């Protein structure tokens, strides 16, 4: 995005994506930007179906961004999910699992 449309548009897109993620997640979820264009959503006490619902809402909100927020090109998202019925050993472990899942999701 930055290369094609400039850093101003790239920053606008990141803010729009963050807004869409806030709209798509539950009030109990924790949202963080942890990379240049990567975000993490921690959904405590969420079952697999709850996580799938959040993922669906994220995809829906992101898909609507270009038209809704005046972004010059469609936005896509790759999503990775890590699920654990028990508390994870570490947040890093969950992020690694989600990252591996995200790479499987990419076209």
What does this structure look like?
- The protein has 107 residues and is mainly alpha-helical.
- The protein has one domain (2-79): 2-Layer Sandwich (Alpha-Beta Plaits), CATH 3.30.70.
- Helices cover 54% and strands 7% of the residues.
- It is built from 5 helices and 2 strands.
- The protein has helices spanning 2-5, 7-24, 48-63, 65-69, 91-105; strands at 30-33, 39-42.
- The protein has a two-stranded antiparallel sheet with strand order 1-2.
- Helix 2 (7-24) runs antiparallel to helix 3.
- The longest helix has 18 residues, at 7-24.
- The protein starts with a helix and ends with a helix.
Number of strands: 2
Helices, by number, come to 5
Characterize the overall form: globular
What does the average pLDDT come to? 84
Distance between the termini: 18 Å
Radius of gyration: 14 Å
The CATH class turns out to be: Alpha Beta
**How would you name the CATH homologous superfamily?**
Reverse transcriptase/Diguanylate cyclase domain
Topology:
Layout: H1 2-5, H2 7-24, E1 30-33, E2 39-42, H3 48-63, H4 65-69, H5 91-105
Antiparallel strand pairs: 1-2
Helix pairs in contact: 2-3
